[in-house]
Amino acid sequence: MTDTIISEESAESVDYSHQPSIWSRLFRNPSVVIGGLLIAIIVSLVPAAPFITPLDPTEISPRNRNKVPGFETVHKDEEGNKYTQVAHMGTDKLGRDVFARVIYGARVSLIVGLSVAVIAVSIGLFIGLMAGYFRLVDAVVMRVMDGLMAIPSILLAIALVSLSGASLFTVIMAIVIPEIPRVVRLVRSIVLSIREEPYVEAAISVGTPTPKILIRHVLPNTIAPLIVQGTFICGSAILLEAILSFLGVGVPPEIPTWGNIMAQGRDLFQIFPHSIFYPGIFLTLTVLAINMLGDGLRDTIDPRMSKEI
Amino acid sequence: MDNPRHNNPVLSVKNLTIDLPRNADRKHAVSNVSFDVAPGEVVCLVGESGSGKSVIAFSLMGLLAKALNVSEGSIELQGEEIVGCSEDRLRQLRCTRMGMIFQEPMTALNPVMRCGDQIDEVLQEHTDFSSEQRHQKVLDMIAQVHLPDPARMYSSYPHQLSGGQRQRIMIAMALILEPVLLIADEPTTALDVTTQAQILHLIRELQGERQTGVLFITHDFGVVAELGDRVAVLKQGEMVEFGTTQQVLASPQHPYTQMLISSVPKHEPPIRKAIPADAPTVLRTENLHKQYFSFSFGRRRNVVDAAVDISVEIRKGETLGIVGESGSGKSTVARCITWLIKSTEGKIFLSGRNIAELSGEDLRQLRRKVQIIFQDPYRSLNPRRTVGQSIIEGPMNYGESHADAMAHARELMELVQLSPDGLDRYPHQFSGGQRQRVCIARALAMRPELLVADEAVSALDVSVQAQVLTLLEQIRDRMQLAMLFITHDLRVAAQVCDTVAVMSKGRVVEYGPAAELFNNPQHEYTKALFDAAPGRHFKFAS
After folding, report:
1. B394 alpha-carbon distance from chain centroid
2. Mutation target among B393, B414, B455, B460 for the A interface, most CBs of A within 10 A
3. Which ipTM was obtained for this model?
């Protein structure tokens, strides 16, 4: 019976089944592959840290203070036996091994990056959907969002830390709050255009309840841009956490993070640059990898966005 | 071809073949096409979407997309070969010897530049006139395209002009250097019928004065009948027929041309079966009124009356057509009736109950009785959901089981002449006409009493349009539906409607049985609308 339709638009009859799947397109994008590989390596450092170095990143050792990379430092194991270990990245002014600290520091950076991205995207998605779909909510919520956007995260972090004390949670909150409005704006703009689509109106006229319309017809359109936005948030959160730690308003100083390793190396920077240089390299590589992954994802999942941004 | 003008054509295209990229559905966008345009002649290229007519236009201007290339043949402009000609030479030829006007004047004009400056730019590029001379020339040209107050038009931005005025600016820009060839790519498709008539008249007039050769690209046989001297019919990149307009339209030789011309809806309404007097009224509106407000600071607000005092009635088995130009409020009425927007005042009786006052569960229960089909079949199906999921969504909202809804969906697919296997496929795997059938099936799945078709066939090619119209008629008769048919196309309205309401500026200016209204229009606006319809007096082959 389908043959009855003659002289249809020929552009239509392009066979889409031959188009490569999203996964094979992802694997063909160099930014995705390189960024993804780098992130995989850095992420694998977290569980593998005890196997990579036997040293405790918080172990203070006055005799090993300020040693240059390659110096053999002497340590004691649990039974009191002495052993030597090469300090690949030297030691800091308290004699702690920089290599061990950098490896363990990846943990905090990744936790902060990931949790900020997940929390900001989830809250932003919910608020954005509501604001985009319900006009009354929109008027109120967007003004609040404008207000939130005006708060610099560093000042907010200082305020939060002075109120509740330095902790990982405070740092995450301080970074999340100014990120939320950015996600809300993104989601809202997508929802505003999608809710005018005839297929959403068709869903309304066949009696689909509003929550179902939001989940079934509107939400899926926001996923691709949000994945992309999430990676960028993750990158900037890692950077911001390092800045906060560097300024001394971040995670408590006993927990190694790339930011506070650099902060503690600051005094002797000109004589012993290694304790700033190595964590700096890791930080740069991580943020670069995440941004490369985000760029690649954007080009692959949503080619239209690459022109808009 | 005995006309001596044809010995010196301004444009001569011979065996033109343009390849498509490798992964496309066919090998050539245009295959072995030959035609010529004589001075002072209008040649129409006509065909459905995908027939390659725009590709030909772009190849003449040297504006082909990079993925396409001319593999064979020649294009000669006054004897000069364009194929393979350098970019510099092409730039010189554009505007000076060939001009082009496009379908959408809003996007073809630069929104941040004054209209006069945009025309002036052409002169700056191609002539040595002083700025005073140029200014004067632009003003003269604006006057020649019959725009009022040339000085004001010169300093207006595109958004300050109407669609028709913008198209006149485009024409002024294309013709200011008096090119020998004007290429018009669907220049009136985005315009209302009365504006379209004016623009066609203008092109005819200017082209006659200057003896410009015109290559006019269109899908509308009415426009061809109105304007064309000769016409070439394209089908999937091949030219199936080329001859004088009279020959091709009145006695087409090729089966494809015959099929196309027989699909063109006629202006005269056919004789229709009378609706039985005792047929129950399904929908009645009383003084339906829709206002849009815009609030600004302070208390001032702008009020726009989108629909005023609409009182219409549709009985079971009857089709009411609402016709009008864009902005006349016809879609507003449809959206109020389907409760996609809330009416400001007035009553909408559906099966005797006033739905304008209902809310909550009562509204939900009544809503299923009115279903709507939208204009754009590409956007009215969620691309992420299979056709089956889209069709059963409604019935399942009202408690039908998945199995029952699917069984019904299968029946409906057969009813709309699609294979039930298609239920598992996604919308992009269907063509435009097939998608519109799916939309009809989705609407019918709700077992409605009133079907609203909001420009439901406007986006379809003429042959597909004819099929969808026939299908809608069959369904209406079979299920005894009441139908509200919104369209800007008088010919379509004439074919399917029992009663017609003509809307202008939010009001119904004329309302009555289709046969009476089409044969003897009373209101001035209706008369103007009918007069403007292109090809109205042409005798097409039947």
Report:
1. 30
2. B393
3. 0.80
